[in-house]
Design a protein that fits this description.
- The protein is mostly helical.
- It has a domain of 48 residues.
- The longest helix is centred in the N-terminal third of the chain and has 27 residues.
- It is rod-shaped, with a radius of gyration of 34 Å.
Amino acid sequence: MQKLINVLAVASAAVSVAVVGTVGYVYVNREAIIEDVKEKALGSVMGGLGGAAGLGAPDLSPSPAPDQAAAPIAPVAPIQF
């Protein structure tokens, strides 16, 4: 019975050391982790725009209107009864 309790105590200590080590690593490197996540998020957003921020995807933009001169429209008088 004592051996089982010792094994559980060692396992508990190992888990505690792993948790404290992970928290310490994240705390020390928190700024680098945040910057890395920001860069990846912005990269995925900008990558979805085709690399042209604010211009949209070229295949979705409307085609330019042809250069044709239109005749001016004369004003029409209202119909009177």
